[in-house]
Amino acid sequence: MKVAVVIPYIGDKSSGPAHSVPGMCGGLSRSGVDIELHALNPLPSELFPFVSIGHPWRSFPYRPLGCSPHMIKALCKRAKEVDIIHNNSLWMMPNIYPGLAIRNTPCKLVTAPRGTMTGYSMNRSRWKKNIMMWLGQRRALEQTHMFHATSAAELEDIRRLGWRQPVVVIPNGIVVPEWRNRENLDNRNSGRRVLLYLSRIHPEKRVDLLLKVWKHIAPLKLDWDLWICGPLNGEYPKKIVSLSQELMLQRVFFKGEVLDEEKSNTYRVAELFILPTNTENFGMVVAEALAHGIPAVVSKGAPWQGLGPKRCGWWVDNDQKSLCDTLLEAMALSSDELCTMGEKGRQWMERDFSWDSLGMQMRSAYEWLLHGGAKPDCVFVD
């Protein structure tokens, strides 16, 4: 089986697709699928067990659209040679090209919205999305043979917008790191307890709400610090830093973007993770935190309702009182109690979110799409 995976670009390592798309490609490759990844920028080929192809794009008429004659030409050629094109995300020209490429070929198209179909996302810059629909995004969606959702909530988004094609629901996966005893780590905060936010600093992530909650919590939890990790370039992150100053918050540390080993060490130092997002189709950072053995407090804007039943965190309403009450409850637990919860989360990630397991599930969905037969449990046709 040959599959061409398409994503506009993988440039921001703080974004979920920068990890999840190559991760799924790796899992599929190890399951025996012949995979190639097409993007507007190449990935270092020595890091992945699949082919990565980067395509140049041009500034005209508007560089953020990602117009790439080189990519569309390559995809039209490959559509005659591969079985499936798996598109990731919407609203850029590379997400329109797959629909054009498969015309008059037996190649099947799978589309993964990657969070772009939530109500929040659809209402942002609606006029731009209408233009992209007219330019070809609607046709690409109509030509989709199967959607890929990363959560039940995203399946609901797809159906709410009227798309009736089969949907395979397979979450993003995670590489579970080697466990290290936290007592042996160089705790860069002098032994203090750390509440960690690690993600983009973007309006939909509600860091502003987190700061307002911290205003109430900080005087009650003097042994805790709040670390906010995420890129600080751009106007909105500057507004968030200014808001922290306006609120005269104590013990809030803006760490900037953390990557690779520094990112892992940051997770390991933290005792509790927080993500108060308005909307998230998966929430890769939650999986990363759990894989590092950190219990998480996550808003109901992200599909992590399993946190409570798995006894590794809290899934809460995204309002100031709910977040404040839940954080006070969590921060009242001892380090040992939080570690016990974190270990349950780590075991959950090892069991259900390994890339090899998810790659096998995706392969079974591909085979069903191409050849029929018994429908995998992960595919929904209603």
Strand content: 15-25%
Number of H/I helices: 13
Q: At CATH's second level, what is the architecture of the largest domain?
A: 3-Layer(aba) Sandwich
Number of strands: 14
Strand and helix order: EHEEHEHEHHEHEEHEHEHEHEEHHHE
CATH class of the largest domain: Alpha Beta
Radius of gyration, in Å, reads 21 Å
The CATH topology of the largest domain corresponds to: Rossmann fold
The CATH H-level homologous superfamily of the largest domain: Glycogen Phosphorylase B
Sheet with most strands: 8 strands, mixed
User: Which stretches are poorly predicted, pLDDT < 50 over at least 5 residues?
Assistant: 184-188
Structural class: alpha/beta
Distance between the termini: 27 Å
Strand order of the largest sheet: 3-2-1-4-5-6-7-14
Q: Tell me the number of structural domains.
A: 2
Question: Taking all residues together, what is the mean pLDDT?
Answer: 90
Percent helix among the residues? Answer: 25-40%
Please state the overall shape, judged from the principal axes of the Cα atoms: globular
